[in-house]
Design brief:
Blueprint: E1 5-6, E2 18-21, H1 30-37, H2 43-50, H3 67-80, E3 83-88, H4 92-107, E4 111-115, H5 128-136, E5 139-145, H6 152-160, E6 164-168, E7 183-185, H7 201-216, H8 219-228, H9 230-239, H10 246-259, H11 265-273, H12 284-301, H13 305-311, H14 317-350, E8 359-363, H15 371-382, E9 386-391, E10 395-401, H16 408-413, E11 419-424, E12 428-434, H17 438-453, E13 461-464, E14 466-467, H18 475-482, E15 496-509, E16 515-521, E17 527-532, H19 539-543, E18 548-559, E19 562-574
Parallel strand pairs: 2-13, 3-4, 3-5, 5-6, 6-7, 8-9, 14-15, 17-19
Antiparallel strand pairs: 1-2, 9-10, 10-12, 11-12, 15-16, 15-18, 16-17, 18-19
Helix pairs in contact: 3-7, 4-7, 4-9, 5-6, 7-8, 7-9, 9-10, 9-12, 11-14, 12-13, 12-14, 13-14, 14-15
Length: about 575
């Protein structure tokens, strides 16, 4: 098999991207070739990937380190009606994971309640004021969701207060773990032999829920409840950008299926408010662009309780609709805040020195809840790792979004002596810093990025899964692609390439006339409809080009009851052959 190759490496696409065609093995069909390039090569693994099963595709939750300890402690607490509290993070992952455990414990008749921190007033994770509150209220077991692994001091305080802490988390494990916790459920911790390391916070919470339900309920009841929790678990898995491989992919595949007829009234009302048509097959985009932002909006600019109470709502329909409308209002407010902040940050980016290799900007007007969104937009437009900070009286709070070439946690580790607190993942992290340390931070991080990224061109690379002949585009290929769903992080929708195609009737479409539509004429006379979202700016260029190379994904397009194959074009280049 040949190595991957840059296509027309001396020229970039009309959007300034570099194209990289993945290895093409003539002995494999298109889909098997794609899977091999993605590391799925064993026949058993390929079969498991193409034909997942709700019954067979999940790993035994008791393979996770400390799972037996956590379950035994909770079984005792439930039996003795000890007070249990679930403490979740303020984003979709923490909120949906909290809902998973709340509904599980409620079904098991536990004496339980929940808490969520306020992003601005409380900050990330546990803090001592919550421990003091829990002690006063007689809490005996505290379960964290999507947080806790970096809360050593708080866990020690909880133990002294007579509270057993069960941590469920997936964030980067610090040098000093909270070793006074009763149990730590984290698939990446040392000596944990759990087969899949990529679970999100909601995923780890789901595994605890399944273990607990399996231990306490008969089979005819437990399977139904375990299945019904999948839609909630899928929310955090998608929104927190968990890799859609192994168990995450199964959670989302069957979570979307369960969501179609959700057991949770609040989620149903939220989907209705978000304009989701349940008569159509649901997809990852429904979570990522409709449900997730509405849940996140509460935690970003108000209180996450609004979102959790929405997911847990039962009973009064009008009250539930009112909660959904409140999330809708918060989401619209969040969108306006992001829009204004992006206009401001674009001015700063325009004046930024390109050789800095990383973009860093702060403002007292950027709400801490939208910093991550600001960073993501800048990374998307510039391919520069980005840090955005909100200024407070004596300190700054920041979000960090990076590219694949620069590990965000590695960067922060290099300046940890300057930081008050930090944590996160390779491409998404957060931290806080005193104002008097900010200048030194900018200087050292800028130099770190220069050293790490020196010599690398700032041109995004598009990895193309397969070079097609027009005859390869068929209903059979569409069926095989559908077996690869759901698509997302590390299980991206396959990207294909057609070379030397002739375009017909290019035109601008859409409400704002910013999308591009054209037909492609192939060498065997077939014509396919092509849509290129937000690429209307290229119409003059492509009109004057005789032949093009295009990169695209394949979609089924339904119009007036008629279904046809459509090419969703993401990049275009003048053909050289």
């Amino acid at each position: 098999m040949s190595s991957s190759q840059n296509i027309n490496s001396n020229s970039y696409s009309l959007l300034g991207n570099q194209w990289e065609l993945q290895p093409q093995d003539p002995n494999l069909n298109i889909i098997y070739n794609i899977l091999h390039n993605r590391g799925i090569t064993d026949a058993q693994d390929i079969n498991a990937y193409l034909t997942p099963s709700f019954k067979r595709s999940f790993h035994n939750p008791f393979l996770m380190k400390d799972m037996d300890k956590a379950v035994n402690r909770l079984v005792t607490a439930i039996k003795n009606q000890e007070r249990i509290i679930v403490f979740g993070d303020y984003d979709v992952d923490g909120i949906s994971g909290t809902a998973v455990l709340y509904n599980s414990l409620k079904a098991l008749n536990a004496n339980m309640s929940y808490r969520l921190p306020h992003r601005v007033k409380d900050g990330y994770g546990l803090n001592i004021k919550f421990i003091d509150e829990f002690k006063e209220k007689g809490i005996k077991v505290l379960i964290t969701v999507d947080c806790g692994i970096s809360c050593k001091e708080q866990v020690e305080a909880a133990k002294k207060a007579g509270i057993d802490v069960i941590i469920t988390d997936h964030h980067t494990i610090p040098e000093q773990i909270p070793d006074q916790a009763y149990a730590i459920l984290h698939p990446k911790q040392e000596d944990c032999h759990y087969p899949f390391k990529g679970l999100t916070g909601a995923g780890v919470a789901y595994k605890l829920a399944t273990a607990l339900i399996t231990s306490l309920l008969p089979s005819e009841q437990r399977d139904k409840l375990i299945y019904s929790l999948l839609d909630l678990a899928s929310l955090g898995t998608v929104a927190d950008l968990g890799p859609l491989l192994d168990e995450n992919r199964v959670i989302v595949k069957y979570g979307l299926e369960a969501m179609q007829n959700s057991n949770w009234e609040g989620l149903q009302l939220l989907m209705e408010s978000a304009g989701i048509d349940l008569s159509q097959k649901l997809g990852v985009h429904d979570i990522g662009f409709k449900i997730g932002p509405r849940i996140n909006a509460a935690g970003r600019i108000d209180h996450p309780y609004y979102a959790l109470q929405m997911l847990l709502h039962q009973g009064d329909i009008e009250e539930g609709k009112s909660k959904a409308l409140n999330l809708e209002r918060l989401n619209q407010e969040r969108q306006e805040m992001v829009k204004n902040a992006i206009l401001e940050v674009e001015e700063k980016v325009a004046n930024w020195a390109e050789d800095h290799k990383i973009f860093i900007a702060s403002s007292p007007d950027w709400h801490v809840g939208i910093l991550g969104l600001i960073c993501s937009r800048v990374v998307e437009k510039t391919n520069l790792p980005t840090i955005a900070l909100q200024e407070f009286d004596e300190h700054l709070v920041a979000s960090f979004r990076s590219t694949t070439e620069l590990n965000a946690v590695e960067v922060l580790n290099s300046v940890k002596d300057l930081l008050i607190h930090y944590g996160g993942h390779a491409q998404a992290a957060g931290f806080s810093i005193s104002k008097d340390k900010y200048s030194a931070f900018v200087e050292r991080v800028t130099q770190f990025a220069k050293d790490k990224l020196n010599g690398l061109e700032n041109h995004p690379t598009i990895k193309i899964d397969a070079l097609l002949d027009s005859k390869d585009i068929s209903d059979q290929l569409m069926k095989l692609i559908s077996q690869m769903e759901p698509f997302g992080v590390e299980n991206e929708k396959p990207l294909f390439m057609l070379k030397n195609i002739e375009i017909v009737d290019p035109k601008l479409v859409g409400k704002d006339q910013n999308h591009l539509h054209f037909l492609v004429k192939t060498e065997i006379g077939n014509r396919y409809s092509c849509i290129a979202f937000k690429l209307g700016k290229l119409i003059d260029q492509i009109t004057h080009l005789r032949h093009l190379d295009i990169v695209f994904s394949l979609e089924n397009n339904t119009w007036k009851g008629h279904q046809s194959i459509q090419l969703q074009v993401i990049d275009i280049k003048p053909s050289t052959t």
